[in-house]
Amino acid sequence: MTSPIFVAIDTPDLDRARAIAARVRNHVGGIKLGLEFFSANGRHGIKEMAELGLPIFLDLKFHDIPNTVGKAIQALRPLEPAILTVHAAGGRAMMEDAKAAAPTGTKVVAVTVLTSLDSSDLSSIGLEPNPHGQVERLTALAREAGLDGVVCSGNEVAAAKKLWAGGFFVVPGVRPADSNSGDQKRVMTPRKALDSGASILVIGRPITQAEDPDLAARSIEATL
Ligand SMILES: O=c1ccn([C@@H]2O[C@H](COP(=O)(O)O)[C@@H](O)[C@H]2O)c(=O)[nH]1
User: Fold this and answer.
1) What is the structure's pLDDT at 114?
2) Which of 202, 207, 208 gets mutated to test ligand 1 (max ligand atoms within 8 A of its CB)?
């Protein structure tokens, strides 16, 4: 069975990214590359990482006017990523244009509420303090816009799935029981996140910053 773990390789260093991916490749289902890696290495870096043969999740979290997001995604079409992210807060028209611009085989998923935000952060930006309400509202909007799924924390995934049984649910903020949360505020263990309805688990630092990333990935896999 393919592993539900996508390892988040957040580094500007292409050689380091390649080395980590090569070490963990047998225990993960794909590689997630985000802003840090893309800003340093661009499309060339993504192509290099794709050479490893694992699905690529391109997590650029687009959030702009519909025309700009559509054109940016069109420019990425040759990379054919397995998964691509936009912010649901960009609105329905932006999500529709994002989906229309993406390659047919690419899942476009919308970030609902970042896992680094808690109730007081939400209040501070003028949103209702309970993340559940915001996740549910944006999940319904992403579904209406024709996207493939959403990104939310393990705490909200069951509620989101109730609204969208056929959706694809990406869960970051995943931490093994003994692991440091770092800047993540809404966290859950890998096993519990899967049991709650995650389609895939995004796990970065608990694997990439471990002394032995291969052992860390294997140990997490063993809990699933
Ligand atoms: O709400 C979100 C959306 C995306 N992310 C990304 O996932 C990884 C998590 O890395 P860790 O080291 O496991 O914390 C990272 O690349 C984020 O950009 C997220 O954390 N939360």
Assistant:
1) 98
2) 202
Instruction: Answer yes or no: are the C-beta atoms of 156 and 138 closer than 8 Å.
Output: no
List Cβ neighbours of 163 (8 Å cut-off, separation of 6 or more): 136, 139, 140, 143
Is 71 catalytic? The answer is no
Query: What CATH class has 5-223?
Result: alpha beta
Q: Which of 48, 63, 42 is nearest to 16 (CA)?
A: 48
ipTM for the complex shown? 0.99
Average pLDDT, the chain: 97
Give 101 Cα–ligand 1 centroid separation in angstroms.
Answer: 24
Distance CA 87, CA 62 (A): 6
Please check if 74 is assigned to a binding site.
no
Q: Is 204 in the pocket of ligand 1 (CB under 6 A)?
A: yes
- Ligand 1 touching residue 173 (CB < 6 A): yes
How long, in residues, is the chain?
Answer: 224
Chain segment 25-48, per-residue pLDDT in tens? 999 999 999 999 999 999 999 999
Q: Which of 38, 115, 153 for a ligand 1 pocket mutation test, highest count of atoms within 8 Å of Cβ?
A: 115
Q: Could you report the per-residue pLDDT of 160-212, keeping only the tens digit for each?
A: 999 999 999 999 999 999 899 999 999 999 999 999 999 999 999 999 999 99
